């Protein structure tokens, strides 16, 4: 079947000219030159083999054939504009759902949530949290904020926000009995950990050249917690040495509730914003930019 449809760009130029009554006005609306609109109109005349406009004084008027075309094209573009406007309005009015681990939400995000609402009111943010593994591909999620390590999947857009540093922390009373020059002295205390971050202690121990077998034994004899909040409270209470991301214990370190005797190590992980294909990328980018500013402004112990 022969394709009888002219280019959409030509029909768009025709519709704008017919509706506005002049090539100049159409060019201004379409943000193109007068000559570009004129060429599109000539291409339509050639396509149909008839003139669609006739000169009328200093302007243009539709010919009979042009009026026939305008009835269909005008209605079609009006419906397109209405559909686009309604979709844009629905997207902008819909809440932006951010999935986030509960520990990150409680210890870093919530203290900044009021400022985010004030600075990005159009985001209409709704936060969903879980300590179990989050699904960034869920249709109910606009974006996922989490620590993760590359490589990133090809079907997701991943915006890196900050590198991850982890540290072993203890109460000041317990830290006083540990040697900051000898990381192996931590084995004199109980090791505390969360099941959601099984790689943390091995990464830290490897960076300090500690014996992996001895670490495994210490973890077997240690204490696990479901949530990082409970882990940190156990460390504050002096129950043992905990492992955690620096970002999430920064306030405790500044206040002196916890001490990091052996400093911090960088891991392969990054704090990232994961965006599924169906995400509203315009709002996602604004959120990512805001998060980067907040992270840059977060004072971190060195």
Automatic annotation (TrEMBL):
SUPFAM superfamilies in UniProt: Periplasmic binding protein-like II, Winged helix' DNA-binding domain
UniProt-listed Gene3D superfamilies: Periplasmic binding protein-like II, Winged helix-like DNA-binding domain superfamily/Winged helix DNA-binding domain
Domain of life of the source: Bacteria
Residues making up the signal peptide according to the UniProt record: none
HTH lysR-type domain: residues covered: 6-63
Annotated GO MF terms: DNA-binding transcription factor activity; sequence-specific DNA binding
UniProt keyword terms in alphabetical order: DNA-binding, Transcription, Transcription regulation
Pfam families: HTH_1, LysR_substrate
GO biological process: DNA-templated transcription
Record bears the keyword Oxidoreductase: no
Family recorded in the similarity comment: Belongs to the LysR transcriptional regulatory family.
Protein's name according to its UniProt entry: DNA-binding transcriptional regulator, LysR family
Organism: Modicisalibacter muralis
Lineage: Bacteria, Pseudomonadati, Pseudomonadota, Gammaproteobacteria, Oceanospirillales
């Amino acid at each position: 079947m022969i394709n009888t449809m002219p280019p959409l760009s030509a029909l768009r130029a025709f519709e704008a000219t017919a509706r506005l009554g002049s090539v100049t006005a159409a060019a201004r609306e379409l943000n193109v030159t007068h000559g570009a609109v004129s060429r599109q109109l000539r291409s339509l005349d050639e396509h149909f083999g008839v003139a669609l406009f006739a000169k009328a004084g200093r302007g243009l008027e539709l010919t009979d054939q042009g009026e026939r075309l305008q009835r269909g094209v005008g209605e079609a573009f009006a419906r397109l504009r209405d559909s686009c406007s309604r979709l844009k309005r629905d997207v902008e009015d819909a809440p932006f759902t951010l999935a986030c681990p509960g520990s990150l939400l409680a210890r870093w995000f919530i203290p900044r949530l009021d400022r985010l609402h004030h600075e990005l009111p159009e985001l209409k943010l709704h936060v969903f949290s879980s300590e179990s593994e989050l699904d960034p591909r869920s249709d109910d999620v606009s974006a996922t904020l989490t620590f993760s390590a590359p490589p990133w999947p090809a079907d997701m857009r991943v915006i890196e926000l900050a590198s991850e540093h982890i540290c072993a922390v203890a109460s000041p009373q317990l830290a006083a009995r540990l040697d900051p020059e000898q990381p192996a002295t931590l084995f004199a205390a109980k090791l505390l950990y969360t099941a959601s971050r099984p790689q943390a202690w091995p990464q830290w121990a490897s960076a300090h050249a500690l014996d992996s077998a001895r670490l495994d034994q210490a973890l077997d004899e240690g204490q696990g917690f479901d949530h990082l909040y409970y882990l940190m409270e156990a460390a504050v209470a002096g129950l043992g040495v905990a492992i955690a991301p620096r970002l999430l214990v920064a306030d405790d370190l500044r206040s002196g509730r916890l001490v990091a005797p052996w400093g911090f190590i960088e891991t392969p992980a990054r704090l990232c914003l994961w965006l599924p294909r169906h995400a509203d990328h315009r709002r996602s980018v604004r959120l990512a930019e805001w998060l980067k500013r907040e992270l840059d402004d977060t004072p971190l112990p060195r």
